[in-house]
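Q: Can I see a sequence and its folded structure?
A: Here is a first one.
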Amino acid sequence: MQIYQKKRLVAGLSITSNIILSVLKIITGFMSGSLSIISEAIHSLSDFFASVLTFFSVIKSSRPADNDHPYGHGKYEDMAGFIEGLLIIFASLFIIYEATKKIVFGVNMDAENISGIAVMFIAVIFNIIVSSLLFKVAKESNSISLYADGEHLRTDVYSSLGVLIGLILINITGYSILDPIIAILVAVMIFRAGYTISKKAAENLLDHSLPDENIEKMKQIIKSYSGAVLKNDSIKARQSGPSTDIDMVLQFPESTTICACHKICDEIENQIRLIYPNCSISIHSEPICYKKNCLNSCDKQHYNM
């Protein structure tokens, strides 16, 4: 199966899973009066809208470069990831607001909440399966939007598990005050995930450089070729959706032929693609003597032609 088809499949699966869990949690939450379950329903609804964004961003980002987008459509995935992170942050703030009201004005819920326990258990299982698939395909395709969607669901696993444990404790102890307290803890986890996703997506949108360790790996590849020298740490690299854009300037001894330069550049590109399979690399080559003694050699040869 092609990677694009895999991306569409898991994005569609995420939409289906989130809408089913959202409906189950909403019904159970309002029947029991449990704010922690309702907060999980809000979380799942935000995940649902995020999954829809992911689905359409995957379709859009897969389109080839055109006149309006000569560098491709990868930024659509970054934009979707940024919006997804904001949705999660807003959902977490709303949950904290509602939970605080419950603590101040009192809690009203059914302590016998077997249906809530069952729904939370189903949610944990569903989200473990779907998030694992999202992370797997996100790693294969280097997709920030699928990764963000997977992070949503992984957070949902932990928060649903927390609510599940809380509901069991409420059933055992009868202390309903645990419900809004658990909801606040869930909201803090949701907020952290939203902030992390938004920050990563914003860095990509603003063309933030790749991590230093990856830049260093590229420098080591260049150093392994005795005929090439990296000019003034000239590597520029950014993430654009599922693809990576890399630019650099390499210098060669003036005695090196064009064919030899081209061969070395091709080999360096192939080595870098082992790190970033889906990347666009632009290497500018120039003689080491450039702007030093070219006035006495290269330029004179040019002017004498």
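Q: Show me another, different protein.
A: A second, unrelated one:
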Amino acid sequence: MKLKHPPGADNASNEHRARLLQAMANVAAAQGLAATSIAAVVAEAGVSKRTFYEHFADKDACFLELYRAASASALRTLRDSVQSERPWQDQVEHALGAYLKHLSAGPQLIRMLFVEIHHLGAAGAQVRREVMQHLADFMLETINTQAPVLTPTMAMAAVGGIHELVLQAIERGEAAQLDRLTPSAGAVVRLLAAAPMAATTIKNGPPK
């Protein structure tokens, strides 16, 4: 999977940073994060260790930036796939299909990212929460354009559910077929979008 970088990143510093992130993606996807060394990353990137440390404090910092960059690239695919003229249910399922297909295009990298982020302690948890919040915000923006049918809590629950489906597929060796999860992912969102209304009905009783 090639990472996408924003336009204007053409000066030497940004070019080196982008090359280091791509190198981390290539090396860690092939070897796993534990076996990845800074020496291997800089050799892959064609830069010096000094250049590496000008951009990242250590290997974990580089990995976390890679996680952010890969997640941002997938989120752009998600946003670009929205078809605003269609009902929100169709919009979300279509966009999720594009998102999951994007992830499955780099199965080794995605497997490494989704698994290794859980091994990086508090720093990994914080970055993972940031990414999940971006996805939840996307759902809220897409679904609630005409009426508030999805709450922030349920949006986050939907993102968590979809991430667990992805992890389960990765554990089964199905990282290259993540787009097969699209119907289930769409169903999760639709069910949770109805959940606030259902909870209100239970609390207040059926309409009289």
